[in-house]
Amino acid sequence: MVKCVIFDVDGTLINTERAILLSLQQTVKEMTGKEHPLGDLTFAFGIPGKKALAALEVPDVDQAMSRWVERSYDYASDVQLFDGIEETLSTLKEKGRMAGIVTSQAKRELGILLDHFHIQPYFDHVITFDDTEKHKPDPDPLFAFLKKANLSAKDTIYIGDTPYDQLSAKSAGIPFGLALWGAKTTIPNADYVFNRPQELLDLF
Predict the structure, then answer these.
(1) pTM of the complete model beyond 0.70
(2) What pLDDT score does 153 carry?
(3) What's 82's DSSP letter?
């Protein structure tokens, strides 16, 4: 029985795609002089920001990461909660089910987002980039969540939108649900496919 629904953030809870890509494009251009088409930057979804910046050959990854976060505020109006997310989280709470987050975002930036959309109270446990040495697609962040929440893999389901999310869930032995409302494409062999957040409630 599913006791806890674990969510990814970008592309699952919150539609940050345009803000992430535009601010990344701007940051890389400022620091390298190169302007990448937005379509070439989508690989950054689902992996730690510093790893994406290193792949783009930015000379000072730490400085670039700080600048990327700063630039993202310029596109705050492009960041939105996906339709149906708050309703779904509220219903889970009413049903006595746990909800959690496992994300590659840093704790600070995640806190800003959750506070902005007033959804922090819905989540019982959160694992961010800062909580583990290894990150998705490694299973360690999900293992850390299970330990923190005192749950077993069979008690949970991980909802995400990228192959990195699926690989992490599979390696942790956790069923994976594809958030098709935010995914760029279907992912083969997902345990569940959800077209809308409200469909998660059918699990109960």
Answers:
(1) yes
(2) 98
(3) P
Residue 32 phi/psi, 5° resolution?
A: -125, -15
- Reported as a pLDDT band with limits 50, 70 and 90, residue 204 is confident
Q: Is 101 helix (H, G, I), strand (E, B) or coil?
A: strand
The Cα–Cα gap between 201 and 204 comes to 6
Same domain, residue pair 23 and 84: no
Indicate whether 99 and 168 sit together in one domain. Answer: yes
Q: What average pLDDT does range 69-79 have in this prediction? A: 86
Per-residue pLDDT band for 47 (boundaries 50, 70, 90) equals confident
Distance, first Cα to last Cα, the chain = 8
In whole angstroms, give the CA distance from residue 82 to residue 144.
Answer: 26
Residues 175 and 196 in one domain: yes
Within its chain, how far is the Cα of 45 from the centroid? 8
The one-character DSSP state at 10 is B
pLDDT by residue (tens digit) across 3-32? 999 999 999 999 988 888 999 999 999 999
Q: Does residue 102 have a pLDDT over 90? A: yes
Are the CB atoms for 65 and 56 separated by under 8 Å? no
Which amino acid is present at 155?
D
Tokens of 146: 């299970």
With CA atoms as reference, report the closest residue to 123 among 46, 47, 14.
14
Radius of gyration of the chain (CA): 16
